[in-house]
Amino acid sequence: VPVIALVGRPNVGKSTLFNRLTKTRDALVAEIAGLTRDRKYGEGKVGEYPFIVIDTGGISGQEEGIDEAMASQSFQAIKEADIVFFMVDVGAGITAGDRMIADYLRRSGKSAYLIANKIDGKNPDVVLAEFFELGMGEAIPIAAAHNRGITTLIDYVMEKLHPKVEPEEETGYLPDEAERAIEHEQLNIKGTKIAVVGRPNVGKSTLINRFLGEDRVVVYDEAGTTRDSIYIPYERHGQDYTLIDTAGIRRRKNITEAAEKFSIIKTLQAIQDCHVCILVLDARQGIVEQDLHMLSFVLNSGRALVIAINKWDGMDADDKQRVKDEIDRRFGFLTFAEMHFISALHGTGVGHLYDSVDQAYASAMAKWQTNMLTRILEDAVGSHQPPVVRGRRPKLRYAHQGGSNPPIIVVHGNLANDLPEDYRRYLANTFRRVLEIKGTPIRFEFRQGE
Ligand code: GDP
């Protein structure tokens, strides 16, 4: 998944563009001690291509004190990114700060785009000319606040990232999926891919070490970068698994280091790439905003999910009850995911986690025949007819599977698009129950057709 960093002086409109690109209120924030403005991370999607966006505090050009801290945020973001959107303000002209950023970007060798924001009603031919001297090519005009130029911008960038190829290519070019399959084969990645995610210090590394077992010697490349998680293949009871380690288990010495090694990019990439995500929470800290944001990223990804509430050891009965109440209150909506109260440190409850992981994997990857899905649909309709819509009763004809991880069930019929929400939910619940789908969300699509 490509990572796009937004950089530029304060007030050029980075946050506005960030919100436009991610279209969500959920952002993960990398908190670095002593900073008033942090890096914000969010996900966006154009067509079928997801991307990650990083918003930064901004570089002012007079880097002292807090500005220096902000500059270091921007430089960090540039390092993490594949693509940089360098934003300038059409009305403000070029400043010393802009020259500094342009300079840094040229030296970084990153693929960077110069974005001229606040074009509003102005004539691009006239106002963009001055930005040529930054040496970054032609500026792309947008008006983030008015949502103008953004689709064009993203299409342009995505087209460069994913050049369209003819379906019957003889060029040796491989589409992303196939390329990844080959890469995985080389790395010996097999079986269920598990991503262990969570805030720093919730116990991810401890859990991973528990999974791998003290005596198992795991050989893998320790180098890793800030962005690439390490994949650790292993076997348990004759079954293959691969852990995606976002925590950097081998290199860690202490708790401060845990926080420093924590990478949101790794977390987001791991969620995208796994079959089953284990979200680790810290019972002693309770549920905090960052946990909920991380959860929302897992839910958006459609990945199967198991929740591990860690550090359950040594808590007294009152504290346990308080945590359970809090979980009921805040995660009540989350009906598909299994929850486990565990101690990664002592190994308590860890075996049962695997039961849920296996179950979730099986459901996420299950394959169902069209005739089976159609029979379930017919039975569901038989015992509970869809309500009349615009004077006609919808006639649902058949269902087929449109994908896995998450499973997609496509229901065909006339007026299928017009089914009311509660009837859709009834169908979803029926499929979930009959197919015994556990631990994964299901997506439903309704297709119109006689
Ligand atoms: P990570 O940053 O999420 O990888 O967290 P670590 O695995 O490094 O754990 C952070 C701290 O919590 C360490 O001091 C661990 O020993 C401690 N810890 C982890 N799991 C447990 C647990 O189940 N119970 C208790 N009491 N402490 C734990």
Automatic annotation (TrEMBL):
<feature type="domain" description="G">
    <location>
        <begin position="193"/>
        <end position="311"/>
    </location>
</feature>
<feature type="domain" description="GTPase Der C-terminal KH-domain-like">
    <location>
        <begin position="368"/>
        <end position="447"/>
    </location>
</feature>
<dbReference type="Pfam" id="PF14714">
    <property type="entry name" value="KH_dom-like"/>
</dbReference>
<keyword id="KW-0547">Nucleotide-binding</keyword>
<feature type="binding site">
    <location>
        <begin position="310"/>
        <end position="313"/>
    </location>
    <ligand>
        <name>GTP 2</name>
    </ligand>
</feature>
<keyword id="KW-0342">GTP-binding</keyword>
<dbReference type="InterPro" id="IPR032859">
    <property type="entry name" value="KH_dom-like"/>
</dbReference>
<comment type="function">
    <text>GTPase that plays an essential role in the late steps of ribosome biogenesis.</text>
</comment>
<dbReference type="InterPro" id="IPR005225">
    <property type="entry name" value="Small_GTP-bd"/>
</dbReference>
<feature type="binding site">
    <location>
        <begin position="8"/>
        <end position="15"/>
    </location>
    <ligand>
        <name>GTP 1</name>
    </ligand>
</feature>
<dbReference type="InterPro" id="IPR015946">
    <property type="entry name" value="KH_dom-like_a/b"/>
</dbReference>
<dbReference type="InterPro" id="IPR006073">
    <property type="entry name" value="GTP-bd"/>
</dbReference>
<dbReference type="InterPro" id="IPR016484">
    <property type="entry name" value="GTPase_Der"/>
</dbReference>
<dbReference type="GO" id="GO:0005525">
    <property type="term" value="F:GTP binding"/>
</dbReference>
<keyword id="KW-0677">Repeat</keyword>
<dbReference type="Pfam" id="PF01926">
    <property type="entry name" value="MMR_HSR1"/>
</dbReference>
<feature type="binding site">
    <location>
        <begin position="245"/>
        <end position="249"/>
    </location>
    <ligand>
        <name>GTP 2</name>
    </ligand>
</feature>
<feature type="binding site">
    <location>
        <begin position="198"/>
        <end position="205"/>
    </location>
    <ligand>
        <name>GTP 2</name>
    </ligand>
</feature>
<feature type="domain" description="G">
    <location>
        <begin position="4"/>
        <end position="118"/>
    </location>
</feature>
<feature type="binding site">
    <location>
        <begin position="55"/>
        <end position="59"/>
    </location>
    <ligand>
        <name>GTP 1</name>
    </ligand>
</feature>
<dbReference type="GO" id="GO:0042254">
    <property type="term" value="P:ribosome biogenesis"/>
</dbReference>
<feature type="binding site">
    <location>
        <begin position="117"/>
        <end position="120"/>
    </location>
    <ligand>
        <name>GTP 1</name>
    </ligand>
</feature>
<keyword id="KW-0690">Ribosome biogenesis</keyword>
<comment type="subunit">
    <text>Associates with the 50S ribosomal subunit.</text>
</comment>
<dbReference type="InterPro" id="IPR027417">
    <property type="entry name" value="P-loop_NTPase"/>
</dbReference>
<dbReference type="GO" id="GO:0043022">
    <property type="term" value="F:ribosome binding"/>
</dbReference>
<protein>
    <recommendedName>
        <fullName>GTPase Der</fullName>
    </recommendedName>
</protein>
<comment type="similarity">
    <text>Belongs to the TRAFAC class TrmE-Era-EngA-EngB-Septin-like GTPase superfamily. EngA (Der) GTPase family.</text>
</comment>
